[in-house]
Amino acid sequence: MKTEPETWTIKELLQDHDQAILKPNPEYQRGAVWRLPQQQMLIDSLLRGFHLPIFYFHRIDETTRHGSNTRFEILDGQQRVNAIARFRRGGFALLDPQAPKSRFPRHLRSTNCRWAQLSYDRLEPELQERFLDSPLSIAVISEADTNEARDLFVRLQSGSDLKPQERRDALPGEIGAAVAELAGRLDVAGGHRLFTDLMGLKPHTDRGGTRQFVAQLLLVLDSYRSTCTVLTDINNQALDRLYYDHMELGSHLTETRERLETILDALYEQLVLWSGPKLQRHIVIHLVLMAHQVQSKFTNSWKDDLDKAVSAFVTENLASERTFKQEGKSTEFYSQYSAFTRSAAAKADTIRRRHSYFISWMRNHLKLVEKDPQRSFSALDREYLYLLQDGRCGYAKDAEVCGDDSRMDFSDGHVHHVLPHSLGGKTELSNAVLIHKACNQKIGARHIPVPG
Fold first, then answer.
1. Of residues 155, 139, 140, the one with CA closest to residue 59
2. Which helix (H) or strand (E) holds 239?
3. pLDDT tens digits along 243-280
């Protein structure tokens, strides 16, 4: 077998194709036919100057009593050849990046496209010429018998088909790196321990399964942060849009990614000693959404019984599934939650319905103490405390915090919650003390009683 690299223009390829010099051998076709959007994106790529992968053509030289002739059989590239030929014949118009349902990345959606919604015959002459002159890399196989050509075809097709997340992993941009950092990957150290320790996921060997789950968490949390509910599906189509739309993360999704990591840290801290069955994905989705809700509205008391509440929920879920499977009986828990973990589980309506029941159930099993809605003391409160304390820091007698009994400058005084707001401390004078700003920073979110 001999292989020679060649460069053909599309014009040359079409000439051979139209004259049946270049044609497919049905034996080498896989049966997959490209959908129209795939064909449209291929032509769009050519007009943007993108270089296509190598085509493999088998050159066959034949001599008959009528003379010698040469033909080429397509070993690899049939769908690309079909798309190119069909477009040249006027078989379809191209996509418009600015269309409402466009799947182009944001940086292309904001620019005018000269070939949007145009078929070949409606292109400007300069664009037609650009298309026809586009270079293609061709590997021409010659001096090969039929079995050698078959062997080459098998080798070209022998790679495992990529799963949807593996295809997303191969896309360039910031979203893939952000997901991989949280989920882990062979070439990315780390990955959050909640996924490996508590869920039993294997990011280095599951062909993108963990990264897909992290992308789903990002998508559902970002939707919740924006709307206080779930308005997006988390199926493969939705994840494809997420990756394509956020080659650049943008500030909002960056904040969502940071928020997700903070929530995962908090959940892992409370469940690190978890000894029950591996947590299922749907439960972790609702734990993440619940943690986002309660951290902004309630004190940290919700964490105290989280492990017990999760254990009870997991037990109830397994019991309801077993009862339905063995006895055909649908408990309230099954009809309100478990049944929706199976059918259309990645649809927004299903997630919302599950989460409504999940949060209602958890409210009855956790200590939820609402924070005082008023976080800040008034300027009048600050003046009153300064005079009441004779201008001295409330922790002047605590050497570890302050130890400075001299009068402080009024501008340096900070009204401090003695029982922190995050722990349920009220924004009222009975829970307030004026202290140095530096002392306030030193205390942080700790509860340190004011010395008598």
1. 140
2. helix 236-245
3. 888 878 888 899 999 999 999 999 999 999 888 899 99
